[in-house]
Write a structure and sequence with these properties.
385 residues, alpha/beta, Aspartate Aminotransferase, domain 1, seven-stranded mixed beta sheet, four-stranded antiparallel beta sheet, 15 helices
């Protein structure tokens, strides 16, 4: 087995698919120290620049003094702390849902929710570009798994029309993490109402950024329905860690009993929930941050004029620059790194073969000068590579 593993790793290197970790020696921010070098970073999902916010640091220190550094037991034993409970109520109110439930990660939330709600006689309908954890949740549920072309409402309806499943669930990213575009959620909800289905929305990259006061993509579209269940992560725009699921009270109560990744896990430390409560307040009061972020997005789109590579159509903080081949994307990323700018190369299987890209992630912590430097080095790279 060890020899097979080595051969597989060697082949990944030949194919330009071997991934490596960077060693971070600074807080997550727009300027970081990684591998003992200083960089301007466009790698982070910290879309509002809250990961190193002094108010959140102070809150975590204070909360750790009050609650300790560990939860000590699963949620259904003695691990559910007042800080957890307060945050769940706050999040439900913020996203205008009846109830919410905390999970330790977004991955755990998606596999736990879909596998708990769906079973052998049911069907899950998923966008082909969905995050891997949505697919894994569907596989774990043992429901019939249908995948439809990206954002293709017509293809989805054709699948729903012929389905004889007892329960039907449409599962989709709200904002796609590698493309930056937004799902046609209003059309999906209409299909749910027409074909007696439910809509599961992964809003990892929309929560905190889109919608009124950062309430997310559902609010962006002004969607409300008992057929909607949403998940959002708390380590991206919220700047801390974890995830939550929100929906009807009966859905949340059922998940408390049946979602294995919730029932059989020790929850995150209570101090994180106290910190997240402060973070949600900052998100709600952060219209100026979202306004600045929109300014940065528009500036990049208006001023990056590459002929060899193409920005994908995105109005979100995720701005993918499609390069094509694996080695070409790596070479471009490495050139930028030599100029002190970090932008990750994203390759298959994360994205389809032939669409390797640089994933430019913008943050409200960036300045116009930061974007100007990025544009300058990309234009330089085009003449050299």
């Amino acid at each position: 087995m060890l020899n097979s593993l080595k051969l597989s790793l060697d082949q990944r290197k030949v194919d330009g698919l071997l991934r490596q970790r960077r060693l971070l020696d600074s807080p997550q921010a727009e300027h970081i120290v990684a591998n003992n070098e200083h960089f301007l970073s466009f790698c982070s999902n910290d879309y509002l620049g809250l990961a190193n916010h002094p108010d959140l640091i102070a809150t975590m220190q204070s909360a750790a003094q009050a609650s300790g550094v560990g939860s000590g037991a699963s949620n259904l034993i003695t691990g559910h702390h007042r800080y957890h409970d307060n945050l769940e109520k706050q999040l439900a109110k913020f996203v205008q849902m009846p109830a919410a439930l905390l999970f330790s990660t977004g991955y755990m939330a998606n596999i736990g929710v879909i596998s708990a709600l769906m079973g052998r006689n049911d069907a899950v309908f998923a966008d082909k570009l969905n995050h891997a954890c949505l697919n894994d949740g569907a596989f774990l549920s043992r429901a019939t798994f249908h995948r439809f072309p990206h954002n293709d409402v017509v293809a989805l309806e054709a699948l729903l029309k012929t389905s004889t499943a007892k329960h039907k669930l449409i599962a989709a990213d709200a904002v796609f993490s590698m493309d930056g575009d937004i799902s046609p959620l209003p059309e999906y909800l209409s299909l749910c109402e027409k074909y007696d289905a439910y809509l599961y929305v992964d809003d990892a990259h929309g929560f905190g950024v889109l919608g009124e006061h950062g309430q997310g993509t559902l609010n962006h579209f002004k969607l409300k329905s008992p057929r909607i269940i949403m998940m959002a992560t708390l380590g991206k725009a919220a700047g801390v860690a974890g995830a939550f699921v929100a929906g009807e009270q009966v859905v949340i109560e059922y998940l408390i009993q049946k979602a294995n990744s919730y029932v059989y896990s020790t929850p995150a430390p209570p101090a994180l929930s106290a910190t997240l409560s402060a973070s949600v307040n900052l998100i709600e009061q952060g219209d100026h941050l979202r306004s600045h972020l929109r300014t940065l997005i528009a500036y990049l789109k208006d001023n990056l004029n590459c002929k060899k590579w193409q920005l994908m159509p995105s109005d979100t903080a995720v701005q993918p620059l499609v390069v094509g081949g694996n080695h070409e994307a790596l070479a471009l990323s490495e050139y930028l790194q030599s100029c002190g700018v970090l932008v990750p190369a994203i390759r298959p299987p994360t994205v389809p073969v032939g669409t390797s890209r640089l994933r430019i992630s913008l943050s409200a912590a960036h300045s116009i000068e930061d974007i100007q430097k990025l544009i300058k080095v990309l234009h330089q790279a085009e003449t050299l590579l």
